[in-house]
Amino acid sequence: MLGVVPDTSFDHGRVELGAGDVLLAYSDGILESCNNADEEFGCERLEAQLRATRSSPAEALLFSVLGAVQDFAAPRRLTDDTSLVVLRRN
What pLDDT shows up at residue 79? Predict the structure, then answer.
């Protein structure tokens, strides 16, 4: 969570999204969701899921990632937050 700890500094910058670009913001609960073998979903699986659905609309991409995380962790319940924001510039 941003802004929870007083006197914390954050890097800031600026990026311009071109036509068709996607910006994905996610919480650690996405990456740290574990399966029955205690493997984390991780960055590689997230990137693979994004690449597989990169031409989809933002809403479809969001539900694709959330579904992939839930399928990966099943039958375990997700215990950490799983916040996800997808922006696509048309």
Answer: 82
Of 42, 23, 47, the C-alpha closest to 32 is: 42
- The model's pLDDT over 63-81, given as tens digits with 9 standing for 90+, comes to 999 999 999 999 988 888 8
Distance CA 26, CA 11 (A): 17
Phi, psi of 36, deg, nearest 5? -65, -20
User: In the chain, what are the domain boundaries?
Assistant: 22-88
User: How confident is the model at residue 18, as a pLDDT?
Assistant: 96
> Both ends of the chain: CA-CA distance in Å?
29
Q: Work out the angle at residue 40's Cα, subtended by the Cα atoms of residues 3 and 78, and round it to the nearest 5 degrees.
A: 65
Residues 6+ apart with CB under 8 A from 41: 30, 31, 32, 33, 34, 35, 68, 69, 72, 73
Residue 84 has pLDDT above 90, yes or no: yes
Could you give the residue ranges of the DSSP H alpha helices within the chain? 28-31, 42-52, 58-73
